[in-house]
Design goal:
Length: about 280
């Protein structure tokens, strides 16, 4: 696909400018998050390799978004965090707000884009600062090409638009490009398809899939098992702030799976088994 080729050029440029001899994985060990006297995440560990998409799946209130916030350095001020994070072999203290090599794609894309600044004036400076392009014209051309390759039929119109003039799915695809353009080797995608229509969901998933196939590591945080299966090779199931099961989706759908994993996969299968409608 041309999508993979264009995004691949960007990611390989970033990787080739980095430390090729380092361990290319994100490793989170024994993450615990406490707010007041309550532990909301307890002893959570994850590993994500570059080029891999991993799902973190769980019901509402299970600790998914707090885990995403810890990884992206955006925990609320009152949160106490403990654990170890390494990004490509380099320690990244969880207490710090900066996360070199990690970018977040959030559920509400408006929180990632300045509402009063046109899209071109948000993407072009990022491409220039990251040395993906060396001139304004080259950065503008790269931004246009990338937008086109994630499904935009009129990228120039998108570049001249303000975020509020785009749909939620369009903004999410812009955010994915923005995250890759700022030298992110790992994307923490926190419920990026929630509240999107089916077509927009598929376009966002396609953009994330292209990023993974081109070399980025993806943590896809969701309650939607169907979306997770379409993007990821494996999943970790979180409940009550802890990982209760993990592995391939065939394992998570088997009798050996944890009851929470079984409930989530059964719920995902239910629409398909109950929908008997046919078309002529």
């Amino acid at each position: 696909m041309r999508t993979i080729r264009i995004i691949g050029i960007l990611i390989r440029t970033i990787i080739n400018n980095g430390e090729l001899g380092c361990v290319v994985s994100l490793v989170l060990q024994d993450l615990s998050i406490r707010i007041a006297s309550q532990y909301l995440v307890k002893g959570l560990s994850l590993t994500i390799s570059r080029g891999e998409a991993v799902a973190l799946v769980g019901p509402s209130g299970s600790g998914k978004s707090l885990t995403a916030a810890a990884l992206s350095g955006s925990l609320p001020g009152g949160a106490m965090v403990r654990g170890e994070l390494e990004v490509d072999g380099q320690a990244a203290p969880l207490e710090d707000r900066t996360r070199p090599g990690i970018a977040a794609v959030r559920q509400d894309s408006l929180t990632s884009l300045h509402p009063l600044v046109r899209i071109d004036r948000q993407l072009v400076p990022v491409l220039l600062r990251s040395n993906v392009a060396t001139t304004h014209a080259a950065a503008l051309a790269r931004a246009e090409s990338m937008l086109e390759e994630v499904g935009f039929t009129d990228p120039r119109h998108v570049l001249r638009s303000f975020p509020m003039e785009l749909s939620g799915g369009q903004r999410q695809r812009v955010c994915i490009i923005q995250a890759l353009a700022c030298r992110a080797s790992y994307l923490i995608a926190d419920e990026p398809t929630t509240a999107l229509d089916v077509v927009s969901q598929q376009l966002v998933l396609s953009a994330l899939r292209a990023a993974a196939e081109a070399g980025a590591g993806i943590l896809f945080i969701t309650h939607d098992v169907v979306a997770a299966v379409s993007l990821c090779s494996r999943a970790a199931i979180i409940d009550g702030g802890s990982i209760v099961d993990q592995g391939s989706f065939s394992h998570l759908a088997s009798e050996a799976a944890h009851p929470v994993a079984d409930a989530l996969t059964r719920a995902a299968r239910q629409p398909a088994t109950s929908d008997k409608h046919t078309t002529a």
